């Protein structure tokens, strides 16, 4: 939804300017909820990569598939820190919290992500080690900006962000428990 960014840390007020179909439709869905849904309570949660057994399409699940096949992993901006991820478990807990305790809010937009951001290369190396892969990791510098998610607003209303490392461990364990 954010598109190309020019800030390192994004909060809910950061201007949405994506020109991809994916980003534009996410932004349009927010507008529809905000303006057309006839309800007193409206919660818009901007999702990061959500990790769990059924995760797909995002860069981390794609990297896992390649790691499982010992294929070369190409990553971008490996030295940049990353926290735009959470787990399906933490997302479910947060949604439950909003449904049960969200009575103090009529409408709220929040970004969610993980705490304790780490470098992209560290995430991929952690995955490679956990999966006992022999994949080679190649870095390509890119003009695409990377950013961190500011979780403060979500934390103030009950979200408990997992650390990036805990999220990755949770994801790998969910795969192992479901016989990757």
Keywords, separated by commas or semicolons:
180 residues; alpha/beta; two-stranded parallel ribbon; 6 helices; 39% helix; globular
Note down, in words, how this protein is organized.
Helix content is 39%, strand content 18%. It has a two-stranded parallel ribbon. The model has no long low-confidence stretch (mean pLDDT 85). It has helices at residues 21-36, 59-68, 88-101, 120-130, 152-156, 164-177, and strands at residues 9-10, 42-46, 49-51, 73-76, 81-82, 85-87, 107-111, 118-119, 137-140, 148-149. By secondary structure, it is α/β, with parallel strands linked by helices. The chain contains 6 helices and 10 strands; from the N terminus they run E-H-E-E-H-E-E-E-H-E-E-H-E-E-H-H.
Give helix and strand order, one letter per element, not per position: EHEEHEEEHEEHEEHH
Radius of gyration: 17 Å
Sequence of strands across the biggest β-sheet: 1-10
Instruction: List low-confidence stretches.
Output: none
The SS-based structural class is alpha/beta
Average pLDDT value? 85
Q: How many helix segments?
A: 6
* Proportion of helical residues: 25-40%
Strand content: 15-25%
Number of strands: 10
Kindly, what is the distance between the CA atoms of the first and last residues, rounded to a whole number of angstroms? 31 Å
Shape: globular
Largest sheet: 2 strands, parallel
